[in-house]
C-alpha cells in the first residue's frame, strides 16, 4: 500500500463517496418496493414506508471531534424494520483497544468509513439480510465486509433453497470478477464460520461471503468492495419481489420471531461491527438498530 498522504486522503474520499452513493441507491430501491406490493398481498392496504434520515456525530475519546454519520431507518408494509447507515469516523483508538486493530499499536490514529444494512421483513417467507462494507486506515489500510442471508422458516434454511442459490450466485459473481483478491470459496467458508452461534452449534442463516483485512492492490480491492454492494443491490430486491406476496400463517410468524432471537444472540455476543462501534464511541441507536423489532424466546 502506498504511504503517500495525499493519495491516502484521496482514497478515503473515494471510499466515503461510494458508501454514501450505495446508500442512496439502496434507499431508492427499497422505497420503490414499498410502493409496489400487488393487490391482495399481505399488508398491501397499509401506507408505503419512507426512510427517515438522522445525522449523528461523535466525540473522540480524547475529547476532540471524531466524525459521525447518518442513520436511515424505515418501517413500512413490506419492511418491518430496515436500517441503511453510513458513517465516517476518525480519531484515536482508546489504549485498551489498540492492540486488537492492525497498525494501531504503532500509532493509535484511525479513519473508518462504511455502510451497514440490516432488513427484517414482515413476511416470514422473505429472508432477513445483512450487508456491510468498510474501509479502515491506521498505519495500514484495508477493506472488509460481506453480506449474508437469514431465512427464518425451517423449510427455507437450506443451501439448496432457491433464495440461497440466487444469493450465493450473486456473491460469487462479485468475487469471480476479482480473482486475484477475492477467492469465493475462501470468503464463503469465512462467512459460514463467522456467522456461527457457538453456544447453539448452528449457523445464523445460509451464509454468503465475509472478508476482512483485505489490503492488497487498493484499486482492485476497492472495485471488489463496490461489486459486493452492486451484487447485493441486484439480488436482494429480486428475492423480496419473489416472496413478499405469499400469505403466511400464525405458526410461520411464530417461527420467524423465535428465529430472530438467534439474530439477537449473535449480534450481542459475537458481531465485530457491534463491538467496534461501541468501543469507538459510535452512535448506539445506529449500532443497535440491527435488532429486530419483535422477537421471542419461548
Would you write up a description of this structure?
It is a single chain. This protein has 298 residues and is of the alpha+beta class. 39% of the residues lie in helices and 26% in strands. It is built from seven helices and nine strands; from the N terminus they run αββββββααβββαααα. The chain has a seven-stranded antiparallel sheet. β4 and β5 form a beta hairpin. α1 packs parallel to α4 and α2 packs antiparallel against α4. It starts with a helix and ends in an 11-residue tail after the last helix.
Quick summary of this structure?
This protein is an alpha+beta fold and 298 residues long.
Secondary structure elements and pairings:
Elements: H1 5-35, E1 52-59, E2 65-74, E3 79-92, E4 109-121, E5 128-137, E6 141-150, H2 162-176, H3 184-194, E7 196-197, E8 202-203, E9 207-214, H4 218-243, H5 250-269, H6 272-279, H7 284-287
Antiparallel strand pairs: 1-2, 2-3, 3-4, 4-5, 5-6, 6-9, 7-8
Order of helices and strands: HEEEEEEHHEEEHHHH
Instruction: Note the total helix count.
Output: 7
Number of DSSP E strands: 9
For the record, give the distance between the C-alpha atoms at the N and C termini, rounded to a whole number: 51 Å
* Beta-strand percent range: 25-35%
Strand line-up across the major sheet: 1-2-3-4-5-6-9
The coarse overall form would be globular
Helix content: 25-40%
Please give the largest β-sheet.
Answer: 7 strands, antiparallel
The stretches of 5 or more residues where confidence is low (pLDDT under 50) are none
Q: Which class of secondary structure composition applies to the elements?
A: alpha+beta
What is the rounded Rg? 19 Å
pLDDT averaged over residues = 93
Amino acid at each position: 500500500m502506498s504511504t503517500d498522504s495525499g493519495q491516502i486522503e484521496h482514497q478515503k474520499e473515494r471510499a466515503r463517496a461510494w458508501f454514501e452513493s450505495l446508500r442512496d441507491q439502496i434507499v431508492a430501491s427499497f422505497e420503490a418496493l414499498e410502493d409496489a406490493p400487488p393487490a391482495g398481498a399481505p399488508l398491501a392496504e397499509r401506507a408505503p414506508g419512507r426512510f427517515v434520515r438522522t445525522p449523528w456525530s461523535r466525540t473522540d475519546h480524547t475529547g476532540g471531534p471524531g466524525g459521525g454519520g447518518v442513520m436511515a431507518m424505515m418501517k413500512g408494509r413490506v419492511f418491518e424494520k430496515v436500517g441503511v447507515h453510513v458513517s465516517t469516523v476518525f480519531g484515536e483508538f482508546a489504549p485498551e483497544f489498540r492492540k486488537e486493530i492492525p497498525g494501531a499499536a504503532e500509532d493509535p490514529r484511525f479513519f473508518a468509513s462504511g455502510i451497514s444494512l440490516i432488513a427484517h421483513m414482515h413476511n416470514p417467507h422473505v429472508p432477513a439480510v445483512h450487508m456491510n462494507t468498510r474501509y479502515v486506515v491506521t498505519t495500514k489500510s484495508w477493506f472488509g465486509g460481506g453480506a449474508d442471508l437469514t431465512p427464518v422458516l425451517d423449510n427455507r434454511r437450506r443451501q439448496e433453497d432457491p433464495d440461497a442459490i440466487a444469493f450465493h450466485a450473486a456473491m460469487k459473481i462479485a468475487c469471480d470478477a476479482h480473482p486475484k483478491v477475492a477467492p469465493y470459496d475462501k470468503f464463503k467458508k469465512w462467512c459460514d464460520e463467522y456467522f456461527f452461534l457457538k453456544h447453539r452449534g448452528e449457523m445464523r442463516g445460509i451464509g454468503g461471503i465475509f472478508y476482512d483485512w483485505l489490503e492488497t492492490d487498493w484499486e482492485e480491492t476497492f472495485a471488489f468492495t463496490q461489486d459486493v454492494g452492486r451484487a447485493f443491490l441486484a439480488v436482494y430486491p429480486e428475492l423480496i419481489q419473489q416472496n413478499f406476496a405469499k400469505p403466511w400463517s400464525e405458526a410461520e410468524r411464530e417461527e420467524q420471531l423465535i428465529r430472530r432471537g438467534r439474530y439477537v444472540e449473535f449480534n450481542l455476543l459475537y458481531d465485530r461491527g457491534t463491538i467496534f462501534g461501541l468501543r469507538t464511541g459510535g452512535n448506539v441507536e445506529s449500532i443497535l438498530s440491527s435488532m429486530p423489532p419483535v422477537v421471542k424466546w419461548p
